[in-house]
Design brief:
This protein is of the alpha/beta class. Helix content is 36%, strand content 25%. A six-stranded parallel beta sheet has the order 3-2-1-4-5-6, with helices on both faces. Strands 9-11-10-7-12-13 form a six-stranded mixed beta sheet. Strands 16-17-15-18 form a four-stranded antiparallel beta sheet.
């Protein structure tokens, strides 16, 4: 059978990893396919300086337009990232009659359904397995593996950098800023870590997975998102006292009113499987109406795990090109996505963890309890670990299950109290896991 030719655009971590796997695993790939995947062209602004790139005899160019217009190339791998040039590359490739494989979570979250429509009109394919949790084939699971089920909830740890930071704080009792600096030194975190520690990266990934799971076009900007900057060792100490840990949890739940979507740190029981996810690993827990719970775990990033996802997509698309497919499966698992406006996160009811730092004096608990009582919020417990600091004394109040709107209103009232040294930290307790 005739070989399939690939053009790789982008030679960063993912692009380099993809090229290395294609080169080192070429014989096994050909054995599985019955034909070869051949890299015909490699493109990046610095491609001519990268002497150790596993590009073989592929033509090197700094101009991506030369790749997408090359009549010999069958599939374009867009591994640039971002939403500007990457979108131009994908649109141009589809217009030139080439299928596309991408690892671009941000672009697929923002414009994925639109680009899939362009692929349909062009009679081409668009594959994006590497866009979420690169080391876990979660797209394939939702699109094909459990497609016969009806998904009712999905929970994930989808950002390896934030999970590394949280588990290092938990293990060693190190301050957030110190762990972040170490993560940057090791290359886990970028110089500007905002996308990771503020939940933006995870939000894009959740938008894609929720579209796959629920068949709705979800705008990432509409997902309630909070980051991990305020968490410290004291929060893990209290969480452990409560039999919990803390993770940046991506949650999507179907309710009778619509979808509830959030990305934020939450307390989860130590007995749950998500609590065991350590370091830079990702995990996704899917709950189906008929198939109940399934769990998927693996590295979420890195040149090799993500490269495997890219190469696997290249192989799947290459099979279609050479063998044909009577009915291609949408990368979003549904023939058409319905428009979705997530319901307000304030509508949900949860148990809550409130952590305070105060200048110690008599009557503090009474004042806080009065505010909670005004909002008809019931206390569950008050916890105070020994502390030498009376000028920034930490303690925790846990709440019975309470509507989030009431908790937010109470916290807003509390934030102006003169004995607080910082605003209260409010975290939901995910008891439904």
């Amino acid at each position: 059978m005739q070989d399939v030719n690939v053009g790789v655009i982008g030679t960063g971590n993912v692009g380099s990893g993809t090229l290395a796997i294609l080169a080192e695993n070429a014989a096994q790939i050909a054995h599985k396919l019955g034909f070869r995947l051949i890299v015909k062209a490699v493109c990046s602004p610095s491609v001519h300086q990268k002497k150790d790139l596993a590009a073989g005899d592929a033509r090197r160019t700094a101009n991506w337009r030369e790749v997408v217009s090359d009549p010999e190339i069958d599939i374009v791998a867009e591994l640039v990232g971002g939403t500007g040039v990457a979108a131009e590359i994908i649109e141009a490739a589809l217009a030139q009659g080439k299928s596309v494989v991408t690892a671009n979570k941000e672009l697929m979250a923002r414009r994925g359904p639109e680009l899939w429509e362009q692929a349909i009109q062009a009679g081409m394919n668009l594959a994006m397995e590497a866009s979420v949790a690169g080391g876990i084939p979660i797209h394939t699971v939702l699109r094909e593996g459990i497609s016969g089920d009806r998904i009712v909830a999905l929970y994930g740890i989808l950002n390896g950098t934030s999970n590394y930071i949280l588990t290092e704080i938990e293990r060693h009792g190190t301050a957030f800023s110190d762990v972040l600096a170490e993560a940057q030194r090791l290359g886990y975190a970028e110089g500007d870590p905002s996308a990771d520690v503020d939940g933006i990266d995870a939000r894009s990934k959740l938008a894609i997975l929720a579209a796959l799971a629920f068949g709705q076009h979800i705008t990432a900007d509409g997902i309630h998102t909070e980051g991990i900057r305020r968490l410290g060792p004291i929060d893990f100490q209290y969480a452990h006292k409560l039999g919990h840990t803390i993770r940046l949890v991506c949650a999507a739940r179907a309710t009778s009113q619509g979808l509830l979507l959030s990305v934020r740190p939450a307390l989860i029981p130590l007995t749950t499987i998500l609590a065991s996810v350590q370091g830079a690993y990702n995990a996704v827990w899917v709950r189906g109406k008929y198939g109940a719970d399934t769990f998927y775990y693996g590295r979420g990033a890195g040149p090799n795990p993500t490269g495997v996802a890219v190469v696997s997509d290249l192989m799947r698309v290459a099979r279609e090109i050479r063998s044909g497919s009577p009915g291609r499966v949408s990368p979003f698992a549904h023939a058409q996505l319905r428009e979705c406006t997530p319901i307000a996160i304030t509508a949900q009811t949860r148990a809550w963890y409130l952590r305070f730092r105060v200048k110690d004096r008599p009557g503090i608990i009474a004042v806080l309890s009065a505010i909670l009582a005004e909002k008809r919020i019931s206390l569950d417990a008050v916890l105070q670990l020994p502390s030498d600091s009376k000028q920034s004394l930490p303690f925790v109040i846990t709440l019975e299950p309470t509507p989030e709107l009431a908790v937010r209103e109470a916290v807003a009232r509390m934030s102006d109290l003169d004995f607080l040294t910082e605003p209260p930290l409010a975290l939901p307790m995910e008891t439904s896991l």
